[in-house]
Write a structure and sequence with these properties.
The protein is an all-alpha fold and about 260 residues long. It is about 70% helix and about 0% strand. It is globular, with a radius of gyration of 20 Å.
Length: about 260
């Protein structure tokens, strides 16, 4: 059943990924994500429904606009496939559970935030701030259904804790990250804290570890210097994703070694 659910959510993820491409392009520019319809940036022609099928249309058009043959970035189908893969992974991780919608939302908004941060080095408030009430409401569903009020309380305490930790880091070292990272930290704390304290700690740690490894690698190959600003949001999101799957197990193993 979980694999059937994963397949269905993979298809849904393709559709959501197509919409996220609009969000990624328009939100940083302050444009509406509802209208007008998507157009070719080269000739301005409106993209028809047959040319807007996730991944398939890009392949059939060979990555070019039907009207002007302007190249269409490969990132569009990659975002669609990435979102679909994340949705399928969440189905495998959580199954047909009450908390699944919350983590599908996290996957979608996380994909949009990661790509926007890579593009403009910014995590827009219009995406991070609404995520608190949306994720909180979605996690309230399994709380009421299963009576897990302790988990819900822990999730909000974890959100405040990770938000506060990042807030202190920004105050101590303002050049290291921005307040967008602080706001994202609270959202991730909410999602990770619902699973457990170990998941929260591992997810937070992995974000810094991945950032240090990639930053160091870029310096080695001379693609970045000590003062080069590298967006930290994607590392936070990848670290949280990994922690959702293996974080609690790693934490328990670590405590076992200490014990």
């Amino acid at each position: 059943m979980s694999w059937l659910l994963a397949a269905l959510l993979f298809v849904l993820g393709l559709v959501i990924g197509s919409f996220l491409n609009v969000v990624i392009h328009r939100v940083p520019a302050g444009e509406s994500i509802v209208h007008p319809r998507s157009r070719c940036p080269g000739c301005g022609a409106e993209i028809s429904a047959r040319d807007n099928i996730p991944v398939l249309s890009w392949l059939l058009l060979r990555g070019r606009c039907r009207n002007c043959q302007e190249p269409i970035s490969v990132r569009y189908p990659l975002v669609e496939l990435g979102t679909a893969t994340l949705f399928a992974l969440m189905a495998v991780r959580f199954g047909a559970s009450w908390e699944l919608p919350a983590y599908l939302y996290l996957a979608a908004v996380g994909m949009a935030l990661a790509m926007i941060d890579l593009d403009v080095h910014r995590l827009p408030d219009v995406l991070t701030l609404p995520s608190y009430p949306v994720l909180g409401a979605l996690l309230l569903i399994p709380t009421v259904a299963d009576g897990t009020w302790g988990d819900y309380g822990r999730a909000w305490i974890a959100a405040a804790a990770l938000f506060g930790f990042y807030f202190v880091l920004v105050l101590v070292y303002p050049g290291g990250m921005g307040f967008g990272d602080v706001k994202l930290a609270g959202v991730l704390g909410l999602a990770l804290g619902w699973i457990g304290w170990g998941t929260l700690v591992v997810g937070g740690f992995l974000g810094f570890l991945l950032g240090a490894v990639v930053g160091g690698a870029l310096m080695v190959v001379r693609k970045a210097g000590r003062k080069t600003k590298i967006p930290f949001g994607p590392f936070m999101l990848v670290g949280a994703l990994v922690a959702l799957f293996v974080g609690q197990g790693l934490w328990d193993s670590y405590l076992g070694v200490l014990g």
